[in-house]
From TrEMBL:
The lineage of its organism: Eukaryota, Metazoa, Chordata, Craniata, Vertebrata. The keyword Disulfide bond applies. GO terms for cellular component: Golgi membrane. It comes from Oryzias sinensis (Chinese medaka). It is a single-pass type II membrane protein. Residues 90-334 form the Sulfotransferase domain. This is Sulfotransferase.
């Protein structure tokens, strides 16, 4: 009886061992296949310094691991110095628009091995106190990267702050500027929803959207309401065009980024002169959350914070129509300036 039990135990151990070995071999083969599909990431762009250097994909993946350990405090700056990692000023900035999808765009672009993102909004150019600290303070807020990678930061307040275009121009007159927009009325309601949620967390009351968006005395759209004013995209863009040519801007369709992100990301890759590296493999639809999540490799994936994709309150249809009619002429001018047309009402 004991002999049969021992034989049965050996058989089970053999089966488990075979499964474990098979799993390891599969993972090794899978990683090898990925590396063969994308063996190198040549950074041949306006951002690159002249030279034939190419950064191997494995090196870039290793770099991400080193930076992760640095952020956790497990690696010192002295330890990463041999890897030629530096803190660079951004060569592209997502300047807006608030509630247009700036966080989603930044996280999705970070899928590209040649892109390194600043995790937090720096608010350097729109905050007088931060700006007074100087450009080296700003550089110190940037992540570590290889010299041939590009650093991207995002601060949506940049788009609507008057002083920002001139300040960014003084830093880098040839910088690439990304603007992600959504249908203006939808964006305004989303803006309101975020503020409303913050008020509710503090047990504070807040006016209904209709009361804020429409002046009760004149029954006209209230352009003093910040959520409405931010959605007049052309007014803000015209201020930026005093310093930068339209060719240095790329407009991202925030509505499309939600439903079909890959084509939008490929357009951004082209605008930034980056080799195409983001693929459908990196994006998968999460049915539970209701939007796309990110897959960096076979081990690591990421979804945006739960605060994204808030449910909007119901808005009086008459107010929605009034806002859409108000925004329409501004939208037409925005299409004309940027050369990109949207199916907005």
């Amino acid at each position: 009886m004991l002999f049969k039990q021992q034989a049965l135990l050996r058989q089970k151990l053999f089966v488990l061992g075979s499964l474990a070995i098979g799993s390891v071999l599969y993972l090794v083969a899978r990683v090898g296949t990925l590396d063969r599909l994308q063996p190198i990431c040549p950074i041949e762009s306006k951002f690159s310094t002249p030279g034939p250097e190419q950064i191997p994909l494995r090196t870039l993946q290793f770099k991400r691991g080193v930076l992760h350990e640095l952020r956790r405090g497990n690696v010192t700056k002295e330890q990463i110095r041999p890897h030629n990692l530096v803190q660079q000023l951004p060569r592209a900035i997502i300047i807006g628009v608030r509630k247009g999808g700036t966080r989603a765009l930044l996280e999705m672009l970070n899928l590209h091995p040649a892109v390194v993102k600043a995790s937090q909004e720096i608010h350097f150019f729109d905050n007088d106190k931060n700006y007074a600290r100087g450009i080296e303070w700003y550089r110190g807020k940037m992540p570590y990267s290889f010299p041939h990678q590009i650093t991207i930061e995002k601060s949506p307040a940049y788009f609507i702050t008057e002083e920002v275009p001139e300040r960014i121009f003084k830093m880098n007159s040839s910088i690439k500027l990304l603007i992600i927009v959504r249908e203006p009325t939808t964006r305004a309601v989303s803006d309101y929803t975020q503020v409303l949620e913050g008020k509710e967390r503090k047990n504070k009351t807040y006016h209904k959207f209709e009361k804020l968006a429409v002046d009760s005395n004149t029954c006209e759209v209230n352009t003093k309401y910040k959520a409405v004013r931010t959605s007049i995209y052309t007014k803000h863009l015209e201020r930026w065009l005093k310093y930068f040519p339209v060719e240095q801007f790329h407009i991202v369709d925030g509505d499309r980024l939600i439903t079909d992100p890959l084509p939008e990301l490929q357009l951004v890759e082209h605008f930034l002169n980056l080799p195409s590296r983001i693929s459908q493999y990196n994006l998968y639809f999460n049915v539970t959350r209701g939007f796309y999540c990110l897959r960096f490799n076979i081990v690591f994936s990421k979804c945006l914070a739960g605060s994204k994709g808030r449910i909007h309150p119901e808005v009086d249809p008459a107010v929605v129509t009034k806002l859409q009619k108000f925004f329409h002429p501004f939208n037409q001018k925005f299409y004309q300036i940027t050369g990109r047309t949207f199916n907005w009402p």
